[in-house]
Amino acid sequence: MFWQEDTKEEHFTLPERIQEVSFKIQSKILPMDHSFLLAQALLDQLPWLADINAGIHDISVADGNGWEQSKEGGFYYPSKRSKLTLRITSDHLQDAESLVGKTLILGDYEIKITKFINAKLLSDMPVLFAKQIACEQSMSEDEFLQQCFDQLSNLGIKVKKMMAGLERNIQTDTGVIHTRSLMVADLKKDESVLLQERGLGDHRLLGCGLFIPQKGIETIES
Q: Which residues of 201-217 are buried (b: 16+ CB within 10 A; e: fewer)?
C-alpha cells in the first residue's frame, strides 16, 4: 500500500475530447473471460478502434450489477441492464453508433447491440479503479505498485494513494495476459481525467488499464 495525505482542489472544466459511449445488449450467455473475443468481434465492425487508443470495457465492469454469475461454469448471464461501453475520441461517436442492430460473434456466443444509450464525458472524481492492469505474473505486490508509480509519474501524475487488488488472467489467441486490479485515490481533477484518457499499461482493447470512477475507497469490491 502507498499512502500520502491530500491537498486543496482547484476549479476544473471537464474536456470533451474522450468520451464513453454505451449500448444496450442482448445475450443469453457469455464466458467470464470474454475480453479477447469481444475485442476481435468489435474490431471486425469498427477497425478504427485499433488506431485511436480506444478502450473496450469488460461488460461486467461496465454494468457489474447487471449480471448474474455462475462460478461453477465460468459464465455470465446478461440481464436487461447489461451494456457495452467503449471509451473513444469524440470525433468517432457517430461512427460508433453504427453498431446498433449489429450482432457481435464471439466464437460460440453472440451479443446483439439493440440500442444506443448515450455518450458521456469522463469523470473528475478523485478515486479511480481499474479492474485489470497488465503485469508480469512473477511480480510481487510491491513491484507491481512501483511499476504503476513509475508509469503514473511519467504521465505527470503525483501519486498519493494506491492499492493493489485481485489478480486475473486474460486468454488470447497467442497466450495468457496476467493482470492485477488497482485503486488510485486523492487524484486532482485534471489528473483523474488524464488517467482515464491515457490509461495505464497495454491492452486497452482487452479492458486493461481502463479506470472508472468510484465514490470512495470503501465502494471498491475485492
A: bebbbbbbbbbbbbeee
111 lies in the same domain as 81: yes
**Same domain, yes or no: 112 and 135:** no
Q: Would you say 79 and 30 are in contact if contact means Cβ atoms under 8 Å apart?
A: no
Residues 42 and 102 placed together within one structural domain of the fold = yes
Question: Has residue 64 got a pLDDT over 60?
Answer: no
What CATH number is associated with residue 154?
3.30.70.1210
CA count, 13 A, side-chain hemisphere, 63: 20
In a domain, 4, yes or no: no
Reported as a single tens digit per residue, the pLDDT across 18-41 is 999 999 999 999 998 999 999 999
27: DSSP letter: -
Give the range of the structural domain holding residue 83, as residue numbers without chain letter.
Answer: 18-121
Cell 465492469 locates to: 61
Query: Would you call 65 exposed, middle or buried from its count of C-beta atoms within 10 A (0-12, 13-18, 19+)?
Result: exposed
In the chain, % of residues over pLDDT 70:
86
Q: Is 179 helix (H, G, I), strand (E, B) or coil?
A: strand
Cell of 89: 475520441
- Enter the pTM of the model: 0.86
**Which of 77, 100, 121 lies at the terminal end of a domain, its last residue?**
121
